[in-house]
Amino acid sequence: MKRKAKAMGTTQSHDSASSWITSAATQPPTSSSNEDLFPVPLEILEEIFLNLPPDQVIRSCRLVCQQWKEVADSESLWRERCRREGYRLRDASRIPKDWRLFYFLCKKRRNLLKNPRGEHKMKGWQILENGGDKWKIEGLMVPHPDETVQKNFVTSYVMCRKAQLIDLEKEGYNPSFMDHFQPDIKISDWYAPRWDCGSEYDICVELLNQRKRPIQTFAPKTVLFEQWNDQKWNQMTHVFQNYGPGVRYIRFTHGGKDTQFWAGWFGIRVTDSCVEICPAADT
């Protein structure tokens, strides 16, 4: 009993939710019997687990005995944890295959791109092409669907392109997690032309292996806007699924130019770019 109590009380620091899940799939409980434990009704044990940090449930509680493992792995525990913490399905008809995985992906979910709206000038972006009068950051010409977006990057009369390289392991998604679960990777980008000038928009997003070679690529055709357009905001989206093992980096590249060759910043505008690791049921 003393050994098991010690296991229950162990607290470890983990900066990756993915390591909790992958280790849970490989580590057996320390005992297959719970005869030496005080009998605890399952609903009470589940309530106790719901009030513990999730990493402690995975790293410590489920290793105590078979009964604790069954509760720690149960669908009801993680479904209730999602409910209490506000992680809800966008489509109620698409039930997750693994509620524990759904919970941790929701908890870790965030935009992996830095400075997506130009609020910190060009910080975080690698300038690949800086043609014409170069990249510039301006306020919006027309309101964005998201009222919190107030700035955008603007291109000039020769091609302007910028990129970011996302290191998934540094962001907390370790290789074994990515290879085993292959979670959905959702990308999004907002772009808009000026009403009085034609422009073009390009985007390319690549899933890369350890050598930074492409495993899968999203590169749609160039989007062209004629002069005298409605200058509304458009959203480009894509979801990478079933991409296989080996993904270690994501390279996000976008940009464009104007088509009138006018000095200044009459080219395509981009803002609120996003790359997220998502639960499949949420994409």
From TrEMBL:
Give the residue ranges for region: Disordered: 1-34
Domain FBA intervals: 102-279
**Record's Gene Ontology CC terms?**
cytoplasm; SCF ubiquitin ligase complex
Domain named F-box: residues:
34-81
Q: Which GO terms describe its biological process?
A: ERAD pathway; glycoprotein catabolic process; SCF-dependent proteasomal ubiquitin-dependent protein catabolic process
Which residue ranges have biased composition labelled Polar residues? 9-21
Q: Which UniProt keywords apply?
A: Ubl conjugation pathway
PROSITE patterns assigned to the protein according to its UniProt record, in alphabetical order: FBA, FBOX
InterPro entries xrefs: F-box-assoc_dom, F-box-like_dom_sf, F-box_dom, F-box_only, Galactose-bd-like_sf
Cited Gene3D superfamilies: 1.20.1280.50, Galactose-binding domain-like
One of the entry's Gene Ontology molecular-function terms is: ubiquitin protein ligase activity
Bias kind Low complexity: ranges: 22-33
Q: Name one Pfam family in it.
A: FBA
Which named protein is this?
F-box protein 44, tandem duplicate 3
